[in-house]
């Protein structure tokens, strides 16, 4: 039986809640299920204000607008990330300054940040890769000293913590994704913006609702609503939030299942990593693991290519991702110079992600571990 890399899953109540949304007669955004999902994040993680968005990309775009990023501003982004982390700021006219990853994990290297700051720098965007926290105390301290905004790309980081603080709740803004490939999904596409700085809540609600003060109108704070600012249609349909609500209700169970699979991979492959065949994920003492992803870092591009082919021959779909953004065609076309980011390039060449999803079976993980052992030690 073929084991896919990812498979959408149901926890049981998705269809029921979607049906309920239809029959209550309110399908457009900001209804009962939208509010329930937002409240879930606000209460469970103590996030100040949360707004559902149609994608993680949209949450990043809202954050870029709220930081008032303009042409000429510089934004520091890791190169080893998804396109949206950079694109959301490029759309505002920003110049992207790419930073390298750490030596022992793909997160942005905080030790190299300060050298990238100029008087034009406005935002730092740490990405919590695989749901494992960046060293946020160091990043927040740098941001404070240089008066910069911090937008956490927490797309992969639901239910994960840094020194006891929820990811997405530390910077000025936190951006989550509920894409089909993440730990929970809003029926394929979805996201959420956490607004952690009180000052931005009012404007966030306006930008979210096509630049209108509709939210204040419904709260009775103004007696007319109209066009007051820039914005877009960032809020998702109730159908998406209804789907997500079913998954959030089962979050504890989903997380327990993913963590067990992650642990099985880790224990089954630990001795090979210790023998130097590959590198495994490192969870620093300040971080938790939300089991978003299990990956290996191979010794070379050639070895990774052979491993992926070997697994495919044996009906397992392992995938790699993130071509270095600083070497992308688009970035080359808009930049005068391409930085040298060796750690990023190494992850782009050597990192491989193993199957990880809620319905993945213990026996299947066992089979994948056996195949990897066979590939390396025969
Ligand atoms: C998934 C992801 C995004 C984009 O989220 P979408 O919901 O697909 O728009 C952004 N950044 C990172 C790091 C991601 O993993």
Annotation, overall tally of beta strands? 11
Instruction: Using the coordinates above, name the CATH class of the largest domain.
Output: Alpha Beta
Question: Which strand order does the major sheet show?
Answer: 1-9-8-5-4-2-3
Strand content: 5-15%
Number of helices: 13
Q: Pairing-aware structural class of the strands and helices? A: alpha/beta
Please tell me how large the radius of gyration is. Answer: 21 Å
Residue share in helix: 25-40%
How many structural domains are formed by the residues? 2
In one word, what is the shape?
A: globular
- The CATH superfamily title of the largest domain: Type I PLP-dependent aspartate aminotransferase-like (Major domain)
Low-confidence stretches: none
Q: Enter the CATH topology name of the largest domain.
A: Aspartate Aminotransferase, domain 2
What string, H for helix and E for strand, traces the elements in order? HHEHEHEEHEEEEEHHHHEHHHEH
Q: Mind describing the biggest β-sheet? A: 7 strands, mixed
Q: CATH architecture of the largest domain, please?
A: 3-Layer(aba) Sandwich
Hetero groups in this structure are: pyridoxal-5'-phosphate
Overall pLDDT: 97
Distance between the termini: 22 Å
